[in-house]
């Protein structure tokens, strides 16, 4: 092998100029705006996802794109930037052990039940919660609510349609498929849509957990915030959990992801089961 051919093999060709300083700026911007802490291993992912924005805007490099973002406090491009860098891995009844716990919890709750799903993604999780409420509460489910929020507007738009492929619902039981979904026909063959009685329980809205004010203000019986905290550093985790606690009704539950531990960050929560935490005391009390 010649020196020239060896050098050619090792050369990495990129479409856009992307420097260490560009990556550092992106890490700072997404952390400041969305609380996401990007590690060095995310560099290629960042390049790949944001390259689409550069092509759309016909920009030659990352530097002018980041200059444009920093010159504006808000705007559509900021939201597209966030949408590009958020991860939306989800499925129906993911981490299945949580849903029987939720069912037992809501059966014991007096009055109308409200659950906040703080990372709704494309809708599988909030609809799984709504199905659980309908199964657990029976006629009482008519007064139940699922507040489904996410920082990513693109996935929220997809979630609000309530339409999924048969592949996405293949792990659901035939009974749940018959009861809670309508099967598509004709041009919609191979798809299903959640039934209106399920969809009516779920209200979608954009919420950035780093915003100074949230649209969610009412007391809730449970909060699902799963596989979100892993993208935050410890100070951001503490800040978010400190704000969750006052929103929970006494004895309310927080459902976290499989690698997250709320009790280590906020003493108001005590472990109740596998990645399930109960609000053990009123926030601000000893």
Automatic annotation (TrEMBL):
<dbReference type="GO" id="GO:0032259">
    <property type="term" value="P:methylation"/>
</dbReference>
<feature type="binding site">
    <location>
        <position position="150"/>
    </location>
    <ligand>
        <name>S-adenosyl-L-methionine</name>
    </ligand>
</feature>
<keyword id="KW-0489">Methyltransferase</keyword>
<comment type="function">
    <text>Methylation of the membrane-bound methyl-accepting chemotaxis proteins (MCP) to form gamma-glutamyl methyl ester residues in MCP.</text>
</comment>
<feature type="binding site">
    <location>
        <position position="94"/>
    </location>
    <ligand>
        <name>S-adenosyl-L-methionine</name>
    </ligand>
</feature>
<dbReference type="GO" id="GO:0008983">
    <property type="term" value="F:protein-glutamate O-methyltransferase activity"/>
</dbReference>
<keyword id="KW-0949">S-adenosyl-L-methionine</keyword>
<dbReference type="InterPro" id="IPR022641">
    <property type="entry name" value="CheR_N"/>
</dbReference>
<feature type="binding site">
    <location>
        <position position="125"/>
    </location>
    <ligand>
        <name>S-adenosyl-L-methionine</name>
    </ligand>
</feature>
<dbReference type="InterPro" id="IPR026024">
    <property type="entry name" value="Chemotaxis_MeTrfase_CheR"/>
</dbReference>
<dbReference type="Pfam" id="PF01739">
    <property type="entry name" value="CheR"/>
</dbReference>
<dbReference type="InterPro" id="IPR029063">
    <property type="entry name" value="SAM-dependent_MTases_sf"/>
</dbReference>
<feature type="binding site">
    <location>
        <position position="90"/>
    </location>
    <ligand>
        <name>S-adenosyl-L-methionine</name>
    </ligand>
</feature>
<feature type="domain" description="CheR-type methyltransferase">
    <location>
        <begin position="11"/>
        <end position="282"/>
    </location>
</feature>
<dbReference type="InterPro" id="IPR022642">
    <property type="entry name" value="CheR_C"/>
</dbReference>
<keyword id="KW-0808">Transferase</keyword>
<dbReference type="InterPro" id="IPR000780">
    <property type="entry name" value="CheR_MeTrfase"/>
</dbReference>
<feature type="binding site">
    <location>
        <position position="88"/>
    </location>
    <ligand>
        <name>S-adenosyl-L-methionine</name>
    </ligand>
</feature>
<feature type="binding site">
    <location>
        <begin position="226"/>
        <end position="227"/>
    </location>
    <ligand>
        <name>S-adenosyl-L-methionine</name>
    </ligand>
</feature>
<protein>
    <recommendedName>
        <fullName>Chemotaxis protein methyltransferase</fullName>
        <ecNumber>2.1.1.80</ecNumber>
    </recommendedName>
</protein>
<dbReference type="Pfam" id="PF03705">
    <property type="entry name" value="CheR_N"/>
</dbReference>
<feature type="binding site">
    <location>
        <begin position="208"/>
        <end position="209"/>
    </location>
    <ligand>
        <name>S-adenosyl-L-methionine</name>
    </ligand>
</feature>
<dbReference type="InterPro" id="IPR036804">
    <property type="entry name" value="CheR_N_sf"/>
</dbReference>
<dbReference type="InterPro" id="IPR050903">
    <property type="entry name" value="Bact_Chemotaxis_MeTrfase"/>
</dbReference>
């Amino acid at each position: 092998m010649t020196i020239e051919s060896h050098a050619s093999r090792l050369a990495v060709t990129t479409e856009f100029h992307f420097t260490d300083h560009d990556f550092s700026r992106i890490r700072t911007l997404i952390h400041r705006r969305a609380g996401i802490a990007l590690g060095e291993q995310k560099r290629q992912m960042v390049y790949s996802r944001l390259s689409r924005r550069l092509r759309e805007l016909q920009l030659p490099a990352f530097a002018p794109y980041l200059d444009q973002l920093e010159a504006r406090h808000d705007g559509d491009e900021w939201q597209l930037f966030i949408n590009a860098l958020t991860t939306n891995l989800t499925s129906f009844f993911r981490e299945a052990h949580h849903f029987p716990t939720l069912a037992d919890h809501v059966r014991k709750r007096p009055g109308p039940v409200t659950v906040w799903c703080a990372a709704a993604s494309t809708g599988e999780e909030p609809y799984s919660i709504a199905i659980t409420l309908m199964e657990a509460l029976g006629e009482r489910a008519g007064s139940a609510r699922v507040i489904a929020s996410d920082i990513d507007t693109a996935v929220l738009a997809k979630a609000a349609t309530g339409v999924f492929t048969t592949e996405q619902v293949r792990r659901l039981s035939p009974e749940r498929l018959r009861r809670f979904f309508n099967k598509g026909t004709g041009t919609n063959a191979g798809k299903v849509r959640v039934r209106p009685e399920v969809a009516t329980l779920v209200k979608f809205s954009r919420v950035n957990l780093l915003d100074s004010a949230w649209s969610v203000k009412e007391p809730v019986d449970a909060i699902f915030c799963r596989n979100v905290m892993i993208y935050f550093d410890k100070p951001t985790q503490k800040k978010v959990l400190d704000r969750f606690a006052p929103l929970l009704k006494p004895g309310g539950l927080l459902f976290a992801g499989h690698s997250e531990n709320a009790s280590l960050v906020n003493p108001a929560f005590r472990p109740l089961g596998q990645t399930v935490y109960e609000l053990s005391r009123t926030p601000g009390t000893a």
